[in-house]
Amino acid sequence: VIQLADGRMWDKRSLFLRGIELDPGYALAYNNLANLLHPKDWVRLSDGTCWNQRSLYLAAIQLDPTFAVAFNNLGLSLGPWDKVTAGSACWTRAALHRRAIELNPRHACAYSDLAGALRPGQRLALSLRGVRRGPIVSFPFACPVLQQETVVLPDGRACDKADLLAGPFDSDRPWLPMQSLEGVWVVHVLVAATEALEADIYGRSTELQSFESEVARFLGKEAGLFFPSGTLAQRAALHAHVQQMDPSSGRLFLHPTSHLIHHDCLRDGPAQARLARGTVDRLPAFRVEVVGDFAQPMRPSDLAALRLGDVVVVEIPQRMNGGRSCSWEALTEIRRLVTQSGARLHMDGARLFEAVPYYGRDAHEVCALFDSVYISWYKGFGGMAGALLATTESVASLAADWRARLGGSLFTLTPQWLDAREQFRTYAGSFNQRFAQLQELVEAMSADPTLSSLLRFEPPKPESCMIHVYLRGDEGALQAAHDGVLAALGLKLWSRLRGRGYPADFREEEAPIEEEELYFEFLMGPANSQIPTELFLEGWRHFAEALAQKLGRPP
To answer: TM segments (predicted)?
Structure first.
């Protein structure tokens, strides 16, 4: 608050209001007043009219059609699918940011805001008057999290973070920054403002059904059904199979590593074991048969008791024993046994795409062996949430009913499925490369005498794009050495240590102790796949030296 010469007290809002009263054509005053308002606030002018934030920005644009900041601010006030009419034109969020850039090519924030308003892979024509830039700008949907210092730009050149941030002001670089300082290395936004997107209502919209069909075709199935979570997708699928089969035994054949047994795969030790026993008892309408060896994938011999009306669930890959996967021969034999007995075969394929390269076949060839397949959108793809069930039309129809009964019919799933669609289109073709990278890294680390004396892999060779790494040593010393690598190289070797490992029998309290080992889960995901193998090896050698110093041993 400020006191003027006449003795009256004024705050920011009242000063901007007074500016508008004195000069109704003062565009900057309208813009500045709007900046003070919350999107839901209203303000009354002296003429009795009521204005909200958006209408004030529109007034500023109408008073000054060259006011770049007002165009950009109006764009920021819009939701992803909103449009406004200004003059004779209808404007989307992206169109407003683009107009701000064209009016003022040095408006740095507008470039960043435009990046957040474009749909994935969209190429946008800009008219940047007098500025030496390429006429076409491409904004990739997801720039991987890079640990190294440089990134390759769309024009093929490499630059560091400082160069990228300097982009809007340097006319010698014909490219644009992808986000502001905090988001330069990660562009991961939901964008649909520039396409005619129909938001789903309770899971129904043309675009959502089109995406479900797109994924179902990719997996070789008749129908796809989006779910907000994988647990819900699998429960609905199993209920649908049991409901449809006549007769149905209500028996589920599960491997000891099955997510359906353990339910929460992030728990370790006694808590995990207690949860495992309890979860089996909480699977209503099903009688659970746990078959197979925890340390190995499911085998045909595990299904000797299979009979008419049973359901077999095979997880590909099996997360809890390091991503082990059934061999192709075992899968085909399991399929034969299931068909012969009149049972059904469901795939827990949360990480299916990470295991497909192991088989050397396309995803639809693997899925052809199963009656239904569930995939996750945040495991391997890095999506925010969600899952998809791919199966026959009849099973999908019953599963949709169970989705509603089990509380999965949200008012809208648009943020989740739109994000999933972009991750699918961005990363579906990347898994062969990731698998090869993980194979190369594991082979190099296993061949290093120093590293092989400190750690081991489970399984010894990757069978998917994930693997468990067991470290020998005290947790405090291991974590201190890891922190030293992070400080020296900026490289995280693991996210967190997960304990001694899962018990071989889910009914036991904890894993048996053979030696002092702790394990972590390593994923060759979109981020890690951007890190060169040489940098990983450098980090692990640094880790070995730091651990030796910590323990007072020669490196």
So the answer is: none
**Beta strands 455-458 and 466-472, pairing class:** antiparallel
What six digits make up the tokens of 192?
């649909």
Query: Vertex 124, ends 152 and 31: CA angle to 5°?
Result: 110
In DSSP notation, 161-176 reads: HHHHHHGGG-TT----
Express each pLDDT in 157-209 by its tens digit. 444 434 433 333 333 322 233 333 333 323 333 443 334 567 778 888 888 99
Q: For 490, left (φ over 0), alpha (ψ -120 to 50), or beta? A: left
3.90.1150.10, 3.30.230.10, 3.40.640.10, 3.10.270.10: which CATH number matches 431-551?
A: 3.90.1150.10
- CATH 1.25.40.10 domain position(s) in the chain: 2-140+155-162+170-183
CATH fold for domain 2-140+155-162+170-183: 1.25.40
Judged on CB neighbours under 10 Å (0-12, 13-18, 19+), 453 is exposed
Residue intervals in the chain for CATH 3.40.640.10: 206-427
pTM tops 0.70: no
Residue showing tokens 């028996």: 251
Q: Cα torsion for 168, 97, 34, 182, to the nearest 10°?
A: -50
The string of pLDDT tens digits covering residues 9-64 is 888 888 888 888 888 888 888 888 888 888 778 888 888 888 888 889 888 888 88
Q: Which residue has the tokens 């796809």?
A: 224
Give the count of beta carbons closer than 10 Å to the beta carbon of residue 283: 16
Tell me which CATH code domain 206-427 carries: 3.40.640.10
| Coil vs helix vs strand at 107 | coil
Q: Residue 506 is encoded by which pair of tokens?
A: 């889910």
